[in-house]
Amino acid sequence: MFYSFHVYHGRKGEKKGLTWQDYRDLLIRAHIQLGGPIVLVWDNLRAHLMPPMQEFVQASKDWLTVFQLPS
């Protein structure tokens, strides 16, 4: 299992959740460590649907397969 910590301290201006970049970086780290393809089943979380994340998924089709759950 691969995971990434995100700690929210309640500070002014601090982000509360993960961004699409955080998910992208986690996927890249997992791919490097596993050394093989990755298959994801995603819900409709906003970060998963953002255009930059969709572009990343399209650019990574040789090692990343994503199944998007219906809304």
What does this structure look like?
This protein has 71 residues and is an alpha+beta fold. The protein has a domain at 20-27 and 35-68. Helix content is 39%, strand content 14%. The chain has a two-stranded parallel ribbon. The two termini are 26 Å apart.
Spans of at least 5 consecutive residues with low confidence? none
Number of helices: 3
Strand order in the sheet with the most strands? 1-2
Distance between the amino and carboxyl termini: 26 Å
What would the principal axes of the Cα set say about the shape? Answer: globular
Please summarize the sheet with the most strands: 2 strands, parallel
Give the helix proportion (percent range).
Answer: 25-40%
Strand content: 5-15%
Structural class: alpha+beta
User: What is the element string, with H for helices and E for strands?
Assistant: HEHHE
How many beta-strand runs? 2
What value does the average pLDDT take? 85
Give the C-alpha Rg.
Answer: 13 Å
Brief overview, please?
The chain is of the alpha+beta class and 71 residues long. It has three helices and two strands.
Secondary structure elements and their pairing?
Blueprint: H1 20-34, E1 38-42, H2 46-49, H3 51-59, E2 64-68
Parallel strand pairs: 1-2
